[in-house]
Amino acid sequence: MQNRTMEIGVGLFLLAGILALLLLALRVSGLSPTASTDTYKLYAYFDNIAGLTVRAKVTMAGVTIGKVTAIDLDRDNFTARVTLQVEKDVNNLPTDSTASILTAGLLGEKYIGISVGGDDVVLKDGGTIHDTQSSLVLEDLIGKFLMNTVSKEAK
Amino acid sequence: MSADNAYAVELKGVSFKRGSRSIFNNVDIRIPRGKVTGIMGPSGCGKTTLLRLMGMQLRPSSGEVWVNGQNLPTLSRSDLFDARKHMGVLFQSGALFTDLDVFENVAFPLRVHTQLPEDMIRDIVLLKLQAVGLRGAIDLMPDELSGGMKRRVALARAIAMDPQILMYDEPFVGQDPIAMGVLVRLIRLLNDALGITSIVVSHDLAETASISDYLYVVGDGQVLGQGTPEELMNADNPRIRQFMNGDPDGPVPFHFPASDYRTDLLGKR
Amino acid sequence: MPKKSMIDRIGLFGRAGIDMVSVLGRSTIFLFHALLGRGGIGGGFGLLLKQLHSVGVMSLVIIVVSGIFIGMVLALQGFSILSSYGSEQAVGQMVALTLLRELGPVVTALLFAGRAGSALTAEIGNMKSTEQLSSLEMIGVDPLKYIIAPRLWAGFISLPVLAMIFSVVGIWGGSWVAVDWLGVYDGSYWANMQNSVTFSGDVINGIIKSIVFAFVVTWIAVFQGYDCEPTSEGISRATTKTVVYASLAVLGLDFILTALMFGDF
Questions:
Q1: Which residue of C has its CA nearest to B106?
Q2: What pLDDT, on the 0 to 100 scale, is given for residue C233?
Q3: What are the boundaries of each domain within chain A?
Q4: Which whole number is the average pLDDT over B93-113?
């Protein structure tokens, strides 16, 4: 009798722990149960990836279609080469699509947004997006703003 | 088994040091088989340490500890485990396992050393509890027992495996006269009925002397005297006399070592 | 009392240092014997279950209540600080990350040390002083296997579980305050959180931390009980030592682990 309640208690305790783990996995960290192995690789070269991190999302029209899996320095061109893993069903990206590094919210994280071009040829696994727009660097923005103000006043 | 059948336990040239302090120096003790032997001495002389040495809870710094024809310090772990089946110990505080009830406490050694079926274990436990007069307490928890009852249950547990040697560590401390009488009777009864060897470590002179067949008086790290109770009562050794007669002053002085009384009183002004 | 000279004081320091090293050695031998010696867990699964109950299940109440309160406070404070940057919607990820990476493992370990750790020390110390440990030895049972090992394993298993439960109830408590009271959008709370909390980075690292803490806290608690002076004064000193040493160890290790896990700058 006392043994039974103890066993049940411990069992419930461990179940609660497993439940907590599941909750943490699914609801808190957003781990999706669908295996993301159905992806293909694309590369994109940027002049400045400031703030972009690995595992940042890749979106099109605001919908997440993949994520960044690697960021390396291309030593020949001194540009950053970003490796993207895009879902296989999004396989009709024209080769002249644009990849831009955007900011989520004012202080938010950087992510990559892809806007389509008009070419007939589509990007395949291992392909490269050539048209890229680098990250907005705050200092450049401020510099531009100040320059504009100065030139306006000069008029 | 060796030829020492007359003696159940023999300590030969045993020395024991704790750190740099020598507790025992080359001690020889022989416990005759089948009798009640008392080991007495003033408090702090290491009587309990002797018991622990006999039970191999402590290892002697040198010397041999022969129990039932085996030299304990030389035994392997599994041999020591088997040897422990034949020894029962009653600790000063009873030392019942507080999270087990009386039945489980007494059954504990049986479960450890044997694979007996449950109904046999139950029978044996009932037998042992009946021997100490506590069969009715079989379902109680240790904290529901009085001090004296705890000790009796601990005794039942000590005899659960029908050991050949029973060791009692200060069994009479703090007992009321009735409990004392019960214990004295039990020790003598068990010894004679079961034919075991009993070793009683105590500083309670009257009770120990009344039930012991043989006595050792221990002090200063060695054996001060041995013999039957009558022999020791008439001993010549002044230390033994002081102990047996309960003299407040003698070889063990009344005054704790201090500087000269006069200078202490007058000097500090 | 004769005044201590400088030499004496230095000698005391030296002795304290040597004592510490010898305690470390003793406790390591103790640990190895209890965990790795022959005989597995003495007393089998039943004893482990019993200890899991007394160490883990009995700590649930304090963990859950503390978790809820800390989660709610985090949300409150976080909201007030973030609103000065206009980023209240980020409160979800703040609460989650703080709990998962830091407060979950650390606070749970500290509470555990205070509640379960001190109870373990007192229990074992009491068993030592009433000679139950000696009795076990005389009956032929190794107290390190029968008494200590189940308690060690129970601690190793319980603390990570408790830490996870703490984080979960904290995040939910935070959501009650943020969403139901302060008006953060339900979707933002959870979506921002999911976007920024990574399972392998944050959740797993938090669990690793709590496993390390479990090891250290339980080890200290059990050893202090086993090693204490078998008097009531010795037991109370040992209990205090458990709480102090375990808490310091947890906080120190937390820094080291955080630097290792999240500090790749």
A1: C139
A2: 92
A3: 1-33, 39-138
A4: 88
